[in-house]
Amino acid sequence: MMDETTPFEFRQCVSIHKSTGKKAANLRELRDVIAEASEESIVHHNYQYFQKGRMREYTNDFAEWVGESLGEKALAEHLSNIDPYDFKEIGALRNEMLGVLDDYIVRVPDPKGAMPGDEFYFNETVTLIFPVGLRARNLAEFFAAIKYIEEDCIYYHFYEARIRLGRGNDDFSRWFEDTLGEKDLAGKIRAIDPLMYTVEQSRNFIAGLVEETVRRDMEVVK
Amino acid sequence: MIMLDRYSGIAPKGDLVLLRRLGEKLSGKRFLHVNSTRAGGGVAEILQRMIPILLELGLDARWEVIGGDERFFEITKKFHNAIQGTIEEITPEMQQYHHEVNRVNAGTLDLDADAVLIHDPQPIPLIEYRKTGKWIWRCHIDMSNPYPAVWDYLRQYCEKYDASVFSVAKFAQTMPIDEFIITPSIDPISDKNRDLTADEIRETVERLQIPTDRPIVLQVSRFDTFKDPIGVIKAYRMAKKYNDCILILAGSPATDDPEGEKVLRQVQEYAVDDPDIRILLLPPFSDKDINALQRVATVVIQKSLKEGFGLTVSETMWKGKPVIGGATGGIPLQITHGVTGFLVHSVEGAAFRIRQLLNNPEMALRMGKNAREYVRKNFLITRQIRDYLSVWYFMENKGRSVLEI
Q: What pLDDT does residue B63 have?
């Protein structure tokens, strides 16, 4: 008999980039533009970093530019170590980044600039959210779906959800716990640190944990 | 949905789902594209493919082309070069003529639509003759460092649009209108990119008399100094000292590019002593031949010095081949250095990477596989149409940065 539970409806988000017309050619300019950039721009360059689907070394656009284009590896590491999900307000995240940059500029007062054409360009996004036409009514269906849904779909439920739901929360674990009563599985999913993985790697972890639970539930003899 | 169905299993499913939803929302609305040539170059090519898809999605899509004489296209070519940073002498008379030709075109073209996408600088003054709808200026050119005198002139038109679209963030300028970033795309089911049979490839190779006894190095592009065909020959000559190979430079003329013939002659003169350099001037719509050449080539290069986007890079990557590309314009967006191809900054760099790919076929295969998947996710026509319609949808819902559809 089919569970009469609320199905999980898979959704996806698509972001179109918008230029702010602002750019930075060195650390001081980066600091000054971050100080006055729109919240949308701060969100884009931090939280949406993982939506771009490339395997990268850092955890946000600022760190990547500082490390790759300016060659300031220590500062890039420091910026990468900022967890954007630690902050309830974008202003607080902005201040944390400014603090790190100010501290570095005091210690290294004359860092080199970027090559012409390799400046940091500040963007924002507009985002469309839509259902992909796929529902899971139980864990087995969820397992089948998670294997082949688009990366953007996983991004929406596992990364973007943290902006909507707060630190440590994502749509998957919430459904597992609240709807299916799978508290252990939800806890394991929440323990995955999304900043440490690409979206594709996160998919594999989630699929693995769900499969483990489905197998356990299927076993008649424990 | 016969045509869109052909993209199922090729394009990302989410793009197709969203396209259909946007099609429902914008159904019956009039979507006009205007550019300055029906044939030659990436813009005309993508419009030929895009209009039928837009029609199938339920939009009333049209494509108009402005006319102009030789003088007009000489002037707009100067604009084109100046936008890409070359110092050009632009006189007030030239600007007046540019405007005047557009005024005449505005009298004959039907510019009445719900959304109008004006492509590149040639038709940009048409904004002065807008009737209704949202007007968007779509710039396909590398505007990272425009010659100020020309940009000041074009800006006065650009700022009258409701929004602009650039291919790469670094091309956007500081303006009081929305500036969206939308990369161009390739059509995976067009003759240029679809799978070819061995017989089809053989037919092209035999007809164009391409020797297949040695590895082939290929560049496909217009004969334009910004594509650096002379630099490609130099790189090939350096590589040839180590690995015997032949070079093919293949391009089609474009009706809006009067400099093409001059550059072609320079290239022919530079290559005259070497029978292993084949210069192919292919007629417009030689898509299947270009497809076959990209598939038969061992190494494909796009050594541009300036580039709007460089779609030939994605075309080649779609065929599972890594590309050696100049690190300019939109090429670094397509090539992840060392993963989906190589970015180069000099003739020497190009020569070195040619040798590397010629000597490491397994590495080329691995990078080529990454390249095809990267194009599938990011540079197919379904994604570009999705983005255009999304921008239009956001303009209809001005002021909101997140929309559920």
A: 97
Residue B309 vs residue A30, higher pLDDT: A30
Which residues of chain A make contact with B336, given a CB cutoff of 8 A? 54
Q: How would you label A191-209 residue by residue, b for 16+ Cβ within 10 Å and e otherwise? A: ebebbeebbeebbebbbeb
Q: Which of B355, B94, B326, B150 is nearest to B225 (CA)?
A: B326
A115 part of contact set with chain B, CB < 8 Å: no
Whether residues B12 and A150 touch (CB distance < 8 A) is answered with: yes
CB B223 within 8 A of CB B267: yes
Does A221 contact B at CB distance below 8 Å? no
B401 chain-A contacts, CB cut-off 8 A: 40, 124-127
Ranges assigned E (strand) in A118-188: 120-136
> For tokens 């779906």, what's the residue?
A145
Q: Do B17 and A127 touch (CB under 8 A)?
A: no
Q: How far apart are CA B349 and CA B210, in angstroms?
A: 26
Instruction: Say how far apart CA B345 and CA B331 lie, in whole Å.
Output: 12
Nearest C-alpha neighbor of A27 from the set A71, A77, A59, A90: A71
For B181, the closest of A12, A17, A55 (CB atoms) is A17
Q: How confident is the model at residue A194 (pLDDT cuts 50, 70, 90)?
A: confident
Q: Determine the Cα angle at B331 with ends B326 and B336, to 5°.
A: 95
Nearest neighbour of A17 by CB, restricted to B180, B402, B403: B180
- Does A109 contact B at CB distance below 8 Å? no
Instruction: State the smallest CA–CA distance between residue A219 and chain B in angstroms.
Output: 34
In sequence order, what E strands does B235-365 have? 246-251, 277-281, 299-302, 323-326, 341-344
Kindly report, residue by residue over B28-64, the tens digit of the pLDDT.
999 999 999 887 777 888 899 899 999 999 999 999 9
Q: According to the model, what pLDDT value does residue A2 have? A: 46
Least confident of A60-69, A160-169, B185-194, B362-371: A160-169
- What's the count of helices (H) and strands (E) in chain A, helices before strands? 11, 2
What CA–CA distance (Å, rounded) separates B374 from B314? 9
B134 closest CA partner among B151, B113, B148: B113
Tokens of B279: 């210069």
Q: Is A94 helix (H, G, I), strand (E, B) or coil?
A: helix
Locate the chain B residue with the closest alpha carbon to A19.
B179
Please check the confidence at residue B239 and state whether its pLDDT lies above 90.
Answer: yes
- Two tokens, residue B252: 């089609």
pTM of the entire predicted model: 0.89
Q: Which residues of B are less than 8 Å from A129 in CB distance?
A: 402-405
Using CA atoms in the order A132, A134, A137, A143, what is the torsion angle rounded to 10 degrees?
Answer: -100
Please tell me the predicted confidence (pLDDT) of residue A1.
42
Tell whether the torsion through CA atoms of A36, A41, A43 and A44 is positive or negative: negative
> Measured between beta carbons, which residues in chain A are less than 8 angstroms from residue B174?
21-22
3-state SS, one letter per residue, for B280-296: EECCCCCHHHHHHHHHH
